[in-house]
Structure formats: C-alpha cells, structure tokens
C-alpha cells in the first residue's frame, strides 16, 4: 500500500533567491556585517520599493534583497559600482544567450 505524500511547497520561488539569502547569512556569520545593520539597510530598501509597489515575498522581495546586499558591500568597500555593473552586464548577456529552462552559466 502506498501513501500519497504531498511534497511541501518550495521555500524560495527561484534558486537565486535561496542563493542570495544563503550568501547574506554567510557574510553575516563570517563578520562582514552585523545582522542589525543588515536589517536596517534592508528595511530602508523595502521602504523605498514599497512606495511604488507592494512586495509579496517573491521575485520583487529578492530583487530588493539583492539591491541591499550590493549596497551594503559597496558601503564597506568590498565591491565597487563598476565591478557590479560589469557583473550585471555579463549575467544579462549570459541569461539572454541561455535557452529557456537551461541553467545560466557565465
């Protein structure tokens, strides 16, 4: 006799959501920033985004999360704006050149 077991819904809508979350937790745990500093910066970003649209905890939420992480790393001089712009451009080109459903690789 088999039992139908429902698979739990994924916690994250997309793999990159989980990855940016895990990276942020790792950076906190390794002392790059205090969680209270992160929470304050993320709260600022959410307030900025919330004035133009509501955030639902999905894609828009994690876009704000990534924006905050980039800003926090720039504020700590761990990455510069030009390097971020180059990386975004490289990811965009890779994304546009990747067949639908295939993983994006740089």
From TrEMBL:
Query: Sorted alphabetically, which Gene3D superfamilies does this protein's record hold?
Result: Nitrile hydratase, beta subunit
Q: Which domain of life is it from?
A: Bacteria
Extract the Pfam families matched here. Answer: NHase_beta_N (PF21006)
Question: Where does the Nitrile hydratase beta subunit-like N-terminal domain start and stop, copy by copy?
Answer: 6-89
UniProt cross-references to InterPro entries, sorted A to Z = CN_hydtase_beta-like_N, CN_hydtase_beta_C, Elect_transpt_acc-like_dom_sf, Nitrile_Hydratase_acc_put
This chain belongs to the protein called: Nitrile hydratase accessory protein
Q: State the taxonomy lineage.
A: Bacteria, Pseudomonadati, Pseudomonadota, Alphaproteobacteria, Rhodobacterales
